[in-house]
Amino acid sequence: MIKLKTNSIVKLCLSIVLCICFLQLPHVNADNISNNAAEFTISPVYPHEQKEDDAGYFDLNVKKSTTVPVKVKISNLNKNQDIEYLIKVGNATTNDNGTINYTNFKNKKDTTAKYQLTDFISKTELKQKVTVKAGSSSEVTVNLKVPKQKFPGTIAGGIYVERLTNAYVNEKSGMNTRNHFSMTLPIILTEQAKVKRIAKMELDKVTVKNGPEITAKLHNVKPVMFGKLSIDSKITKKNHTKTLVHKSVNNYQVAPNSSFNFLASDSSNQLGAGKYTIDMHLQSGKRKWHLVKDFTITAQQGVPLTKRTGWFGVSMLLWIIVVVLILIIAALIVVVVRQRKNLKS
């Protein structure tokens, strides 16, 4: 009976230790969405300006002062219900995670862009609705009106199709649940296909947020779309060579005339107030860029020295864990010693 009690106490203490350890692990949330319930497909209907017929998206070589009909075929796979769809056209931008978003609907043109895709489309065609009968298909047309003045490089965007008729009743709860299903077809435009353009990356600014979080705004100032971009960044104290924070990423994709925010350091690095320098090396194929900029972390933005170092250069969180573990071990020793005394008596 005494032995069972001792084992129970040991198990309880071990459980506490495990809980403390698990507190240090990041929580991962998995959100799986099945596209089977979308019940529709979209496909491009290529115009004569299409470069490759098996591209799966619109890759058009256009001429000035022409109108190019871009058609999307929407197939309703539901044989029992007519479905309404929303069709919108957006411009290509670069997401902060290094992917291209072909349907940005905020029509704020980049300062370095001469044109963007939505400049070539009438307002009535930027946003349309269509109802496709059950088990049938329908085509939606967006006319691209290429201006008289030639445009350099590449212009990118996309056609976004969203199913609107998608409310259904959950039989178990009786509540109305609404799912959103959408698909996108990219549109790539070039006018002077034989003229090669060279990408150019610039470091616009460095932003410091409380924590602190250090973000570098990288800017593609040319009408060139490219991929396989690698970024290697280092943060040092100003006029020092010791690297405080190092981060590298690969396989970023960049839209023409677009910018994105690169998180060079998050709050876990616990940088204090002071003057710093960010040194960045970027490469895509044979093209390389070296970007450097100084920045300052204020006392309000930085982590206080005591919070960063704790006692004797060790973080306070680690000290708390050590103290808790010592108390648990001490409690175990006391329990074992008392049990042995009871057995002897």
Summarize the structure.
The protein is α+β, with helices and mostly antiparallel strands. The chain has helices at 2-22, 123-126, 305-309, 316-344; strands at residues 40-45, 58-61, 67-76, 83-94, 100-104, 127-132, 137-145, 154-163, 167-169, 176-178, 182-190, 201-209, 213-220, 226-237, 243-254, 258-265, 274-284, 287-297.
How would you describe this structure to a colleague?
It is a single chain. With 345 residues, the chain is α+β, with helices and mostly antiparallel strands. It has two domains: 38-190, Immunoglobulins (Immunoglobulin-like); 201-303, Immunoglobulin-like (Sandwich), CATH 2.60.40. Helix content is 17%, strand content 43%. It has helices at residues 2-22, 123-126, 305-309, 316-344; strands at residues 40-45, 58-61, 67-76, 83-94, 100-104, 127-132, 137-145, 154-163, 167-169, 176-178, 182-190, 201-209, 213-220, 226-237, 243-254, 258-265, 274-284, 287-297. The strands form five sheets. Strands 2, 4, 5, 6, 8 and 11 form a six-stranded mixed β-sheet that branches. It has a four-stranded antiparallel β-sheet with strand order 15-14-17-18, with no helix packed on it. A three-stranded antiparallel β-sheet has the order 1-3-7, with no helix packed on it. Residues 40-162 form the WxL Interacting Protein peptidoglycan binding domain. This is DUF916 and DUF3324 domain-containing protein. Residues 173-302 form the WxL Interacting Protein host binding domain.
